[in-house]
Write a structure and sequence with these properties.
about 375 residues, alpha/beta, Aspartate Aminotransferase, domain 2, Aspartate Aminotransferase, domain 1, 2 domains, seven-stranded mixed sheet, four-stranded antiparallel sheet, 13 strands, about 35% helix, globular, cysteine desulfurase activity, PyrdxlP-dep_Trfase_small, transaminase activity
Length: about 375
Amino acid sequence: MIYLDNAATSFPKPIKVHDEISRCLKNYAANPGQAWYDIALKTAEKIMETRQMICKLFNASGCSDIVFTSNATEALNIGIKGILKRGDHVISTVIEHNSVLRPLNYLNKKGVQVTLLSVNKYGYISIRDLKKEIRKNTKAFIINHASNVLGTVQNINEIGSIAKKSGIIFIVDASQSAGFIPIDVMKDNIDILAFSGHKALFGPQGTGCIFIKNGIDVDYFKHGDTNISPGSMGHPNVSPDKFECGTMNTPGIVGLCEGLKFIEQADINNIKKHQESLMEYLIRELKRLSYIKIYGTNSYENRCPIVSINIDNIDSSSAAYLLNLKDIAVSAGYHSSALIHGILGTCNKGTIRISPGYFNGYEDVESLIDAIKNIYENK
């Protein structure tokens, strides 16, 4: 199978990810809480190692700022619901994933004022419009670093600078960019960074993370048992224990650790260079086909490895089904982003989303192009 749906989840994973998950389950998958036996200590050591790897990748200052979650959706819910209260104002965009839009819709009904910035046809917000929408009660910006529909990459460094000068909390959804684009939470003035572990970080599904900058007051998301103060009825107010109650996904976290090590060894800049070269080739070949509509920019530059298209007179879901018959996996539909399709003109059909990964090659792109030609010629 030719797998081109890495925006949903990366596949395949590096071999060491598989191996460490298996080793964990066989040898040390204990709870890392208050137990002092060897395999529990080994578990705690591996979890701390993963925190340290995440800190290193994003230039976070302390491991206590790193909170493990089950996915980016949980991470975003912690950040969004943990800081926004009745009477607050928040600025986000129409290009966000539903894991931002739906919590904001929920909070809007609870008295939180929400402004959703529009984007141009390429998926970019206007910095001028962002500045114009700032109010006295604006509490946060919530920005999708890279669109999961168009691959469009926003200028988070510039937005972070505006947030800092205005005293506004800056929340970044890095689900598509983490592991592909270098991110520096300090230089970019990011207060809260949410991301999944199972995409470009090469970890298994069921893993995610939220970075919460020291000093940012985020309310409790859930209550339960923690590694500290287990004898107290009061829930601890210290990160990460404040948010990490209950049994942790140790096999998933150690698998994520190996994914992070793979990125470090391969070098994130080399990963980016390889995937950009595939995107350049893919877009060039798609542009040769008059019956293909490419959404967003026609360039591989300043985008994650995601291209959304449609084929003339063929429904996106039908096209994905026909590609599957040719052993090619792509995504079709609305890609969990409810509002961007109104701007793209794809409300009634969605798009075909092609997202090559690090383990794809030029031959995979060639096979995809040949398959698209065949599908169109035989429609």
